[in-house]
Amino acid sequence: MKFDIPLDTKSIDQSHVEIFKSWRSFSDVFDGAKRMRVVTYCDSPEFILDLFEDLDDLESLEVVVGDVSDYRERLIDKPDLADRLEQLRSEGKLVIYLCENKEVHSKLYLIEYDDSVLEGEADDNAEDQMTLGGEAPIESEPEDTDDGSPAKVIVGSPNLSRNAWSNQTNMGVVYDTKTDSELYEEFEEVYRDHRDSYNSGGPFLEDLSEQLELSDDDREEVIKLYTEGRVGTQDELGEVHGRLADHIDAEVETVDLALDGGTDSDSEQESEVIEGEVEEDSTENDPDLEEAPQDRITLSLRGYEESTVDTLSQMTDFDATVSNDTLTTTPDAFQRYAEQVFDVPTMHLNEAKDELKFHYDGTVYRVTQPPSNPERVDEALAEIEDYFATVDNYGNSNNPTAVKAHMYEALLWFFWAPFANRQAQFYREHGINLDKALPYLYVFGESNGGKGTFCRFALSLISGNRVEAPVDADEIGKRKVRNLRSAHTSFPVVVDDITKQKVNSLDTLRNYWSGWTGETAYPMFAFISNDKRPGEWFRNRAKILRFDVNFMTSHQGEAEVNRLIDTENPIFQWFGYEYLNRDLELGTDSDALREVRAAMQDLYEYADRPLPDYFPTEPAEQAYDTGRERWRNLIDREDVEIAKDSDTLQVTFPESMNFELHEYKRDPPMTVRIEKRGLDLIIKTPDEFFDWLGETTTGDPREGFLSRARSLLKR
């Protein structure tokens, strides 16, 4: 658009080019102004407010902001700033317009003064000023008119901002004129074109004014909600879930997880429960008494994608409302919604307070607590060992010690999983690949191997007997895995009775941590299966444990296990306290559970209880490797041959073992490279293979197999 603004101005419209070398030299032109209208590229709402309040004579200020980024985000968590800006906007004193559909870099200033302000004004910067025609600036007074007030127009490079003036110089054309001049009217048209062409939503904060007018809530509450808008993370749904969890943590009283006498405060909790029961009974007897309503949580959903709001709308099934870009819910409604959508409850770590919080049945539970006394810790550890003792009492196994070690290793993983995000943050700081450093859990074994029962036991320990049921395998797919990253929970997702083919198909687990920013908690996954080891990519990312046991059908054994599962055992709460008081360290190996083992050993030491001989002081899958035993036992088969093939070993199996070759191929760790060729397994890295096999005891006949295999490589 073209505007006919003459460069050869009339005598009443003095003009010059001025170089502004500092913010102070530029802001001097605002002194004495009573009205300003500005087009500028970037600034902040704080700066505009400060400028308005610093100029004593200024009665009104209009600003057109050319930066099209989300200006409202600059009010996030600043309700006092929004309150003051809205008041001034409603009074017509300070009005901000946003260029919502285009980025505008124009800079234009229309400044009006009282009649007396410019009288006798000396030009202190004369040596920095040049007339447009190259002549000296005119020193005579502007001709007076009857109606116009003194005014200045500045067109040039300066932004309405203090930023960058320390190393920046700006230049502008300055017109000294009157408000009733043709020149000023032309520039007013330029200003209005900027304001009206690029703004379609009206003045900034006009929507807040409308909400204040329509709402019955207090002004403070409406503004607080308005300034809670989204902060622009990668995962919108996860962001809202995190905000809800934080609000619930802050607004709902936190109580200790019921520990059956586990802490000094337990007796008080028990008395509170008893009192609550009495009150509940009295409520039933008196219909005039009603149960107190739950705390209601209100969040702004302004700015979120429609798909995010649609998902959150599912909360309306549980006494929540979603309307006018606002979500209102209760802790119980949020928790029931989370379990419906994600099949897991909310659990997350507040690292600032070193507390693990667990949301369940409308309550916020504090999980991590210091041990109460050595005797109680000893009892809790004994109860865990009683569970493992069911392998001896009711199970059939060739190696009960190995089975119990694998069970204890699995339990350590369950204790570690709620804190995995803490370890993820630590690993990321050191540039470690999270997808390979934070292991999933895969437990396999025959039917009646106690795998599902163990999951009930482990889940009950970490939830205070509130969660026992795992997730059904039919509920898990790629999309479900992807969505669970938005759940904002560190409670582990335990999938029971899954096939290895289904696990292999969940390739979203390959790069599960790739988009993690630390703002949202990600849950870890445990898979329980009757199938043996899944595909290679998953084995690279998982702790694989075998429950090589078969439990006899026994009512007595079933009753014993159920008793142990139902017993309230506070060991996880005490473990969490010990674990969070340990610094994470980078070890010489890849054991993700190093600090977990140490924390559990601290509890044994505190209780003055000896470690059981099966306690996994190193990863149980390494200390009790059933695959290694299977390879060592090959010497018992006379029909298995071993030969040298260049720098590799060739192990030839009989045709009767054709279906077992795949299992033998998967047994060694991934550092041992093995290729299958018909009935042969080609071991490409013999040194790593022998390191894995290790040494057998002196006199063990299997040593002959190992010696024979090693001697082949020396020929």
Automatic annotation (TrEMBL):
Residue ranges, annotated region (Disordered): 259-291
Biased composition (Acidic residues): 263-291
Protein name: Tyrosyl-DNA phosphodiesterase
Annotated source species: Haloplanus litoreus
